[in-house]
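Moderator note: this is an archived Q&A kept for reference. The question asked for a predicted structure of one protein chain; the sequence and the answer are reproduced below.
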Amino acid sequence: MDRSELAALLRQARTRIQPRDVGLPAGSRRQVPGLRREEVAQLAGVSVDYVVRLEQGRGPRPSTAVLGALSRALRLTDDDRDLLFQLAGSAPPQAGRIAQVVRPSVLRLLDRMADLPALVMSAKADVLAWNSMAAALLGDFSAWPPQRRNIIWQCFLGTDPGRVRFTPDELRAVGAYGVGTLRSAKARYPTDPDLDRLITELRSGSPQFEQLWRERPSAQWRSATKTIDHPEVGVLVLECDTLLVPDTDQSVVVYSAAPGTPAATALDLLRITGTQQFTAPT
């Protein structure tokens, strides 16, 4: 492990990323370029002290899970991600694993969607990146620990109901879509250890998932109409479309509304207010 070079890489990568690039509010009185250390820690799901020690070249050897989380938080390219792993004394992610790093070109696309909520999901439904409008609409994804930043895990094992509202029929369909997605991912990535761990946890922790797993539904995520119950702007009915990035097996999920509709007006308001809250939480 080359602690000094690892520290330099982490510091440099942090200065290149702006809060808006990772769906965080910019705030005021920022005294450092790029992200603050606490923001990197929040996105990666580690302590601020851990990030400080790594950047000062005195931290412990990071696990591969932490290295992957730091790569995503700092939006590293594939080459920089591999260098990060090598400097930490670990082998870079191997072929046959589900891609967890979003390509810079896809991140640029996400950033240009300034007026629409958009997020990027992996082949097993991990939320890998999101823009500020997605955080304003759906909530702060960085509040979820990285290992829980998975839509299917949240559906079956999560305790936060989130802001998307489903009818009973829609909820059953979402469960089937989730199981179908993981079965399809398992067929394409039979040796991915993180996928195996996710499936094992879901099968042991959710009787509903276990039953659906045995029933083997083949449903996959599709474009649909979603109802969002937002604490500030009320109920929005939005179109939710999924755009595929074939070579990385990732998906860009985009929420939109027809011009002139109440939902479009609500999105315009969210673009101004962002993640600010004006009502007291209940």
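Archived answer notes: Confidence is low (pLDDT under 50) at residues 278-282.
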